[in-house]
Design brief:
Blueprint lengths: L6 H8 L7 E6 L3 H8 L4 H10 L2 E5 L2 E6 L1 H19 L6 H17 L3 H7 L1 E2 L4 E2 L4 H12 L2 E5 L6 H14 L5 E6 L15 H19 L2 H10 L2 E5 L11 E5 L7 H8 L7 E6 L13 H8 L6 E5 L9 H16 L1
Helix pairs in contact: 2-4, 3-5, 4-5, 7-8, 8-9, 11-12
């Protein structure tokens, strides 16, 4: 008959140091920033608690974290990243909190650190823009190293927003003389009929997302002055024909809605001292079914060409509401099964 282990031995065998709760403490220097770090009604801390299954208790300028050692370490990394952002003078939102969580999780495998994300951050007049996912970090790095970059993937991954941030940085730092933002003027599966007004009033609705990104980074008056001076130009893709785009940064958004002919025309506008970015979702073309997408065609033809960079985003990179990522995954699964 085997002698039963005593209760102390049995308890010792069941303890898993990886899941055994511990309490660790984080001290911050600035009490004023602690309130912003916690968020209204501790909303930011609640998001981190739910993400890592830890408990966070604010105690003045100290946070007490209780949970498994691994989860406390990840939560600590996310909290330090957010605090650094506040120290840089940038407010944080729930989206920033989710981004810090994503990067903290990915950092273990990708080698992305707070130092890396800080070096890739772009300072614009209204905010500091930092990568929130591993692919966003790769994208910003690619933008800084190549004259032609493709950013592809689903909506909400930041591919256009980060491209505009990069363009704003290049313009304000004097590395380029102009910024040109363009889109195909194609209705997204709708027929909105006759639009009144002059040419600008007709095409502005198609280009509104680009205006929104600019106004999110620079004051409205400043943007309007730059537009009036010609330093910033926003125009439909058709207006690019016959031009040579030199000493400027050019972004083609919604590239999947450009035809093969339009895409070739656009890419061959690249002039001396220019940087070009093409963004789009290859799976969301609004072109007629018989018309192949110029974006897909370019990605195939230009694959492996020296000097061209490409970042492919996935649903994991969605930085909008968490439901957006789940919606994209559900549609992808449906299409595969269908």
């Amino acid at each position: 008959m085997t002698k039963p282990a005593n209760s102390k031995q049995a308890h010792k065998q069941q303890v898993d140091p990886k899941t055994t709760p511990i309490t660790t403490y984080i001290d911050f220097d600035n009490n004023r920033l602690m309130a912003d770090l916690a968020g209204e009604h501790d909303a930011h801390l609640t998001v981190i608690e739910d993400a890592y299954n830890v408990r966070i208790d604010p105690r003045g300028n100290r946070l007490a974290l209780t949970g498994s050692k691994e989860k406390c370490t990840l939560a600590t990394t996310a909290l330090h990243a957010l605090y650094d952002q506040l120290e840089d003078g940038t407010t944080i939102t729930i989206e920033d909190v989710r981004g810090a969580i994503h990067l903290s999780n990915a950092g273990q495998e990708s080698g992305i650190t707070r130092k890396t994300t800080k070096s890739l951050s772009l300072k614009t007049p209204k905010r500091v823009i930092s990568p929130r996912t591993t692919n966003q970090a790769h994208y910003l790095e690619t933008l800084s190293q190549h004259d032609l970059v493709f950013g592809t993937g689903p909506a909400g991954t930041g591919k256009t927003y980060l491209a505009v941030a990069h363009a704003v940085h290049l313009l304000l730092s004097g590395q380029v003389e102009r910024m040109i933002l363009t889109r195909p003027a194609l209705e997204a599966g709708e027929r909105i009929g006759f639009l009144p007004g002059d040419m600008k009033e007709k095409v502005d609705p198609y280009l509104r997302p680009l205006y929104d990104a600019l106004h999110d980074m620079m004051d409205t008056d400043f943007v309007e002055r730059r537009l009036a001076a010609g330093d910033i130009e926003i125009a439909p893709l058709g207006f690019m024909r016959g031009r040579t785009l030199a000493r400027c940064v050019v972004i083609l958004d919604e590239g999947q809605n450009a035809t093969k002919t339009q895409m070739k025309m656009f890419l061959t506008r690249l002039g001396e001292g220019a940087t070009m970015v093409v963004t789009g979702d290859p799976d969301q073309s609004d072109l007629p079914h018989h018309e192949p997408s110029g974006l897909n065609d370019a990605l195939t033809i230009l694959k492996g060409v020296e000097g061209i960079g490409h970042t492919a985003f996935t649903a994991k990179d969605v930085v909008r509401h968490p439901l957006v990522s789940r919606i994209i995954n559900a549609y992808d699964k449906s299409h595969k099964n269908g």
